[in-house]
Amino acid sequence: MIDWLLLGDPAIRWQVLRDLTKATPSKIAAERARIEFEGWGGQLLALEDANGMWDGGACFPADYRGGEPGQPWTATMHTLQTLQIFGLDPASEAARRATRLVAENGRWEHDGQRYFDGEVEPCINGRTIDTGACFGINIAPIVERIVGERLDDGGWNCEAENGSVRTSFDTTINVLDGLLEFERATGGSAAASEVRRSGEQYLLERRLFRRKSTGDVVNLQYLDFAFPYYWHYDVLRALDYFRRAQADRDPRLAEAVEVVRSKRQADGRWLLDRVHPGRVYFDLEDGVGSPSRWNTLRALRVLDWWDKGPPAATADEG
Hints:
Shape: globular
CATH architecture: Alpha/alpha barrel
Number of strands: 0
Order of helices and strands: HHHHHHHHHHHHH
Low-confidence stretches: 314-318
Mean pLDDT: 95
Helix content: 40-55%
Radius of gyration: 19 Å
CATH topology: Glycosyltransferase
Number of helices: 13
Largest sheet: none
C-alpha cells in the first residue's frame, strides 16, 4: 500500500513519508520542495495570473455568469486551499509571491473587500483564515470576527446573515480548520481556542454525522469521501481535522471511524466516492469509483491515529 501511494504526485508522497513511514526529516523536506516545481503544484502555480490571482477572481472566475454544473473551482480561494492541502512550503518563493500579490490585488466579489480582510460569510472567512495563517498573513481581524459570529448552539452558518440560527456542518468544519491553523501558526488566543472547542463539541455531540434530536443521518453525502473537498463537509475530512488537532480519541468519534474502516477495499485501498461538480483545471483522481490515493492516505493516517490506544473517556463517563 505504501509503495502504491509513493507512486503518486509529490503532494501525496511527502505526506506519506511524513505520516505513514519513518522517513528522515531531510527526505520528507526534499520531497515537499518538489511541489513548487513539479506535478500538480507546479501546474497550478503556472496557471497563476500576472496579478497573483487565479482565473481572474477571488471566489468565482472573472467570466463566471452562472449556468454551469456545480461551482467553478478555478478561482483564487479554491486554488490557494488546494496548494495548502498539497503542502506548498509557505517559505517557498512561489508561496511568498502569490500571497503578496493576492494581498495587493485580491478583492472579494461580495463588496470589493481586500482578500485577506475576508468578507461576510464565515465559510469563506474560515478558509481565508486557514490559508492566510498557513502562508504567514496577519488574519487576526478575521479571526476576531469569526469568534463573534459563533451561534448559540456552538458553531457557524453562512446563512446567519440571512437569519439562520442553526449551525451548519459545512460552515463549521471550514471555520474549525481555519482556527486550528491560526493557533498552530500564531499561538492563537483564548477566545479563538474557546470557540474552536465549542465547534468541536457541536460535531462530537452529533457523532460527526447524526442529528442530535433523532439520531438520523444528517446528510448521506457526509458519508461519501470526496477529494478535493473545497467547502464541503464529510466524515473523513472531520476525522482528519480531529487527528491534526491532536485531540483525545473521544469515544463519540468511534462510529465515524468505523464508517472509514468499513470503506476499505479488499486490496487495502479506499475509493473516490464523490466529486463535487464544477469547473477544474485538471483532475486529481481517476474518477468516482476508482482507487483514491488522497482518500487512502487520509484514511490510513486517521486509523493510525485512532488505533494508537483506547479512546479517552468523555466528561460524563468519568
